[in-house]
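Lecture notes, continued. The same structure-token format from the folding unit now serves as the input rather than the output. Read the line below as a description of shape only.
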């Protein structure tokens, strides 16, 4: 069986998102997988950080060791938030201007008529016309139209993709509720999960923690406009005896918290090493601003923190409330600080670590994959 997964991120990015884990599940079931990451264009040549992706686009499809085949398309017509380039016409034709043509690349790899196309990167929805798949599913991981860098006409693309798809997945219940009246029985709830076993075991203290004073409060994940640096600043200033460690690439104003003596920005850390950091942390935090975008989010980090036995303090939003986890949910900076202080001062990790692990364990990616196969199994057979 052959599967194409259309994602925004490269396969070997430092962090691991849902499609990485679903790809692993498909590979373990014997599927052949082609991972198509977001296209590059002339604009990517302007940043040295894009050098690797540009080189990969030039070389064509390449095989990852113990992973999927990956294709980085090069397009002469990129869809960007820029006059003309953000138009619906460009969105619908961007993949038709790839060099070499996407059709040629798919035929070369034997994925020109796959059994399944799985699309999370909605902007690549025209792959359904180019690849001639037997079955199409779309996975809505976020409310894409709420991202500032994404043109608003992505909603139109979402509608066209949904009309073409045989099945749709929404990763959070609020997103499911918003889309259900429009898409009906075609839509299914498929929350994020966790590789529980990845966080079990004994780990060495990471070198990055060598000179860091405990107790340690940790955030892992994207640091974008939804990251609430103000809440972290209040926490760090009120609890100078805590070290607040932050893992991820910074893409937003941090309000100077990086200058505070008890805040450490550690940058990107490979997913394989993440258990080392969680093992020597006293609490995991999810300090997000409460926005329409955040309301659609399925909190992958909640499950990963708890798989490591960590107490979790987070911003309160609807999906987290519905998950009924042992996490403490805050509505203000002061409440957030008080809750983090409570779980650390009372030693919740040592006292309740098993409880947190037991909550996380049923939310495995393999359990989520069972839902996927229950939905698409009959579609593929037909």
């Amino acid at each position: 069986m052959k599967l194409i997964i259309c994602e925004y991120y490269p396969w070997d990015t430092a962090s691991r998102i849902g499609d990485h884990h679903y790809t692993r599940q498909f590979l373990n079931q014997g599927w052949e997988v082609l991972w198509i990451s977001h296209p590059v264009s002339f604009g990517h040549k302007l940043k040295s950080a894009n050098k690797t992706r540009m080189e990969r686009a030039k070389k064509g499809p390449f095989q990852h060791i113990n992973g999927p085949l990956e294709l980085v398309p090069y397009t002469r017509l990129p869809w960007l938030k820029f006059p003309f380039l953000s138009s619906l016409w460009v969105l619908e034709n961007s993949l038709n201007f790839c060099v070499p043509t996407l059709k040629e690349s798919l035929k070369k790899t034997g994925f020109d008529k796959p059994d399944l196309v799985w699309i999370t990167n909605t902007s690549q929805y025209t792959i359904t016309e180019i690849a001639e798949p037997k079955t199409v599913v779309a996975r809505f991981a976020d409310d894409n139209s709420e991202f500032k860098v994404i043109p608003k006409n992505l909603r139109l693309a979402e509608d066209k993709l949904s009309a073409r798809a045989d099945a749709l997945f929404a990763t959070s219940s609020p997103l499911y509720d918003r889309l259900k009246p429009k898409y009906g029985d075609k839509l299914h709830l498929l929350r994020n999960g966790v590789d529980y076993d990845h966080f079990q075991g004994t780990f060495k203290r990471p070198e990055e923690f060598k000179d860091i004073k405990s107790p340690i409060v940790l955030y892992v994940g994207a640091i974008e406009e939804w990251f609430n640096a103000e809440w972290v600043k209040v926490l760090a200033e009120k609890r100078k005896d805590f070290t607040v460690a932050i893992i991820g690439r910074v893409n937003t104003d941090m309000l100077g918290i990086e200058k505070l003596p008890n805040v450490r920005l550690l940058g990107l850390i490979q997913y394989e090493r993440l258990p080392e950091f969680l093992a020597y942390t006293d609490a995991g935090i999810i300090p997000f601003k409460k926005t329409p975008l955040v309301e659609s989010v399925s909190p992958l980090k909640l499950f990963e923190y708890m798989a490591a036995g960590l107490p979790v303090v987070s911003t309160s939003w609807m999906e987290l409330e519905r998950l009924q986890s042992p996490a403490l949910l805050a509505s203000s900076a002061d409440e957030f600080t008080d809750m983090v202080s409570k779980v650390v001062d009372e030693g919740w990790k040592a006292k309740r670590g098993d409880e947190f692990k037991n909550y996380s364990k049923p939310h495995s990616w393999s359990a989520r994959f069972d839902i996927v196969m229950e939905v698409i199994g009959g579609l593929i057979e037909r």
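Point for the exam: The chain has a mean pLDDT of 93.
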